[in-house]
Amino acid sequence: MAVFKLDNVEDLYEIGNVLGSGHFGQVREVRERATGAQWAGKFLKLKRGAGSRLGLERKSVEKEVEILQSLQHQNIMALKDVFESRAEVVLIIELIKGGELFDFIAEKENLTETEAIEFMKQILEGVRYMHQKNVGHFDLKPENIMLSDKHAPKPDIKIIDFGMAHRFIQGEEYKSLGGTPQYIAPEIINYEPLGTAADMWSIGVITYILLDALAGCQFEDMQQERAQLTLEGKETYTLLSGLSPFQGETDEETLRNIVAMNYEFEPHHFSQTSNMAKDFIQKLLVKDQSERMTAEECLIHPWIMPLNRTQIAKRNRSSINMKNFKRFNARRKWKMSFNMVSACNRFCRLQLLCKARGPEQQELRDCESDQEDTGTKPASLLRRRLSSSS
Ligand code: ATP
């Protein structure tokens, strides 16, 4: 068992504002008392006992730490230190000040396809590096792609959240049901042995979403893209989707669409998109893992690395409709907060239930950050770090 530092983290670091929250804890700004240097602290709640349903297994945190310790790359969030107490583990990580890539793009007045490709290139460089180290991320999505400093002339991409990452060991099979429905590969849904190719599928989905949103599509016109989100089977909210090429009206339908490879380049969205860009996506959204482009291959694909002037010119001609991207991103954020509110509602109900049941359920109350989905839908099964990985 890995031993983390047992010092009280607050003796060494001043704890500041909350930067974000995940399923198992919060990320906060921290300042090292000795040097004044700024870092981020990821506070992860641990399971209290073998029977506890809430919090993280210590071995799951050890896995995340071991993987982060082994990765040193400009495009991957760095880990500095790890502290533990009885109830939580605190990861001291590189402070990433620039926010999410998609928010940065949405703030810009204009962006060329070439600039967008520059960001894709950095994502691919980070992914190629981790795959060379036999690490798969398994949760690549826009929320986990951040920027070092949005005011820098050329901000660095930083890939975050290695909570679902896995290091492959030769000869050992790995299966997992974890991930976020819109971004997961068919082999995850089918519970087949996995490889790093699953990340490449997610890169295909992210690229599709980026180009879809940038392509000047008129969301208001697309009634067929309306997705119904049902909250607790009672209230129904309607919103426009545009989130994933496989987006269904429910998570179950999204998963079915992925397995059936049910996606297309809507002419209305993609008429301005270069064939090179479409070819890039098509070579990633491939059902057979062994046929999917690797990160290495992506980096030499002509869309990323044009071979001649004609290819460069084709890239530069594609302009980006920022108005639509802003609208798309606002909707994506809205959907994320909708999901968070829905998770909080579930948590509040759990707390009430727990109060009614008495002190033996106390741990439920104490773990304020846990929003684990207890539903039986496939999407809930796929949410986070499940014990079904082998
Ligand atoms: P999830 O349950 O969504 O997988 P998690 O508990 O593993 O999340 P992270 O995704 O790592 O937590 O972080 C949660 C949020 O905190 C991120 O979405 C991001 O907004 C913010 N965040 C994470 N790491 C950093 C960092 N190094 N610097 C600044 N903000 C960060």
UniProtKB/TrEMBL annotation:
Cross-referenced Pfam families: Pkinase
Keyword Transferase found: yes
A GO-annotated cellular component: nucleus
Renumbered residue ranges of the record's region Disordered: 362-390
Gene Ontology MF terms: ATP binding; protein serine/threonine kinase activity
All copies of domain Protein kinase, residue ranges: 13-304
SUPFAM superfamilies to which the protein is assigned, alphabetical: Protein kinase-like (PK-like)
Residues given in the record as ATP binding sites: 42
Membrane-spanning parts: none
InterPro entries listed in its UniProt record: Kinase-like_dom_sf (IPR011009), Prot_kinase_dom (IPR000719), Protein_kinase_ATP_BS (IPR017441), Ser/Thr_kinase_AS (IPR008271)
Keywords tagged on the record: ATP-binding, Kinase, Nucleotide-binding, Serine/threonine-protein kinase, Transferase
GO process terms (BP): intracellular signal transduction; positive regulation of apoptotic process
Record-stated family: Belongs to the protein kinase superfamily.
Name this protein carries in UniProt: Death-associated protein kinase 2
